[in-house]
Write a structure and sequence with these properties.
Layout lengths: L8 H11 L2 H7 L5 H7 L4 H29 L2 H20 L3 H29 L2 H15 L1 H17 L2 H21 L12 H12 L2 H31 L4 H24 L5 H25 L3 H29 L4 H27 L4 H25 L3
Helix pairs in contact: 1-6, 1-9, 2-8, 3-4, 4-6, 4-15, 5-6, 5-9, 6-7, 8-12, 11-12, 11-14, 11-15, 11-16, 12-14, 13-14, 13-16, 14-15, 15-16
Keywords: Membrane, Transmembrane, Transmembrane helix, Transport
GO cellular component, one term: plasma membrane
Subcellular location: Membrane
Length: about 400
């Protein structure tokens, strides 16, 4: 096995940060292509939206176990194998136009992406310590947010000039480029192998999931990010079919959505020392108010500019709440950091995928008012969860 060489520290770190936004890239880059793909695969809007849920569910489930596996069997070979399969899956999606095959490939991509992201997070812990490690770990959420911000913007142009398959070709070559960097400059950096003991792993999972503030927090994270995903699922149909704009405009709107998420996350970082529940309640009340106002305005005045003003504001609130509770969950069990990290990411993604897909298809979201209803449902669920958290008085 090839071992890590510290003389390549900078470029191997760069390679890691190139791969960290992969989950956002692979979910968001083809969003502007939804209407075109719907036509190609001869299915409904829900049929194409399901491709997102297929990825998120498999990604979330895999996150639960990926940490234990990369701790037991190493990071380097898993990343190399996953990148090759991931690249191949994208090229196959672009070539084989069968809906069931598309679903299967998206499930596979969710599994592979989870292993890549978990392994590369662990790689930073392997090669850095102290303040340097804190610095780079602090950059993770900022770098990750680049995926949802830039991917739909890029995807809009790819769709406009070369069609929906170009999105998957781009991601496939992105993976091959990353594979080349990993193959040449990286290696196995894990300091020691951890035995894969199922009874101990199950015991730790029960401890983490059995803690009320942590398990309820997964639902808070799920409802917050569901707002972002609901917009992502419905934006191409609202913008391109309701407002009659191009896929490039969809990309710009998704960019605004991602910027809102980023601003909310940065705002949460500035207010780190404020009481947890106070911050969460403030963000949630703002969500409820904005969702109601968005619904009322939508009944009297419909415009893409008004829509995006509300979306930007709503996603600031969602990003704020998500970042606040995500940080809490990651630091809740320092002695089981790998497991709690996997459960936090995986559990939140699972809840997000179920809530977003179910809500979108139940309400048939196609304009500002129905999108506002979806937002209010998520905000109301968050409000209920915060009431329970306040009663148990743990956080």
């Amino acid at each position: 096995m090839k071992l890590y060489n510290s003389k390549y520290e900078k470029i191997s770190t760069l390679s890691t940060f190139i791969l960290i936004p992969l989950s956002g890239l692979v979910t968001d880059i083809y969003i502007p292509s939804f209407p075109d793909m719907q036509s190609t695969f001869n299915t409904s809007a829900a049929g194409i939206q399901l491709t997102l849920s297929c990825f998120l569910i498999s990604y979330g489930i895999t996150m639960f176990v990926a940490g234990s596996l990369v701790d037991s069997y190493g990071r380097y070979n898993i990343v190399l194998g996953a990148l090759l399969l991931f690249a191949l899956s994208n090229f196959l999606i672009a070539s084989v136009h069968n809906l069931l095959f598309l679903y299967a490939m998206r499930v596979l991509q969710g599994v592979l992406t989870a292993f890549i992201v978990v392994a590369k997070r662990a790689f930073l812990v392997d090669i850095y310590t102290g303040d340097k490690l804190k610095h780079y770990m602090g950059l993770l959420s900022v770098v990750w947010s680049l995926g949802p911000i830039t991917a739909p913007f890029l995807g809009g142009y790819l769709q406009s000039y070369w069609g929906w398959t170009s999105n998957f070709y781009f991601v496939g070559f992105y993976a091959l480029f990353s594979f080349s960097l990993e193959w040449i400059f990286c290696g196995e950096a894990m300091r020691g192998v951890h035995s894969f003991r199922i009874p101990i792993i199950i015991k730790n999972y029960r401890k983490v999931l059995g803690t009320s503030d942590f398990s309820l927090g997964l639902f808070v994270l799920g409802t917050s990010y569901a707002m972002v995903l609901i917009f992502g699922m419905t934006a191409p149909f609202i913008i391109e079919e309701h407002f009659h704009f191009s896929s490039i405009v969809t990309g710009y709107c998704a960019l605004i959505s991602g910027l809102g998420l980023f601003v909310g996350g940065m705002l949460a970082k500035f207010l780190t020392k404020k009481p947890l529940l106070a911050k969460l309640r403030f963000g949630n009340l703002a969500q409820c108010f904005l969702a109601l106002l968005m619904f009322i305005v939508g009944n009297f005045f419909s415009s893409i500019y008004v829509l995006m003003l509300f979306v930007f504001a709503m996603h600031i609130c969602a990003g704020f709440i998500y970042n606040v509770y995500f940080t809490f969950c990651l630091t809740r069990f320092p002695e089981n950091a790998g497991i709690s990290s996997g459960i936090t990411s995986g559990g939140a993604y699972l809840i997000t995928s179920v809530l977003s897909y179910g809500t979108v298809n139940l309400l048939n979201v196609n304009n500002q008012s129905t999108l506002a209803i979806c937002y209010f449902i998520m905000a109301a669920l968050t409000f209920s969860l915060l009431l329970i958290l306040r009663k148990i008085s743990i956080v």
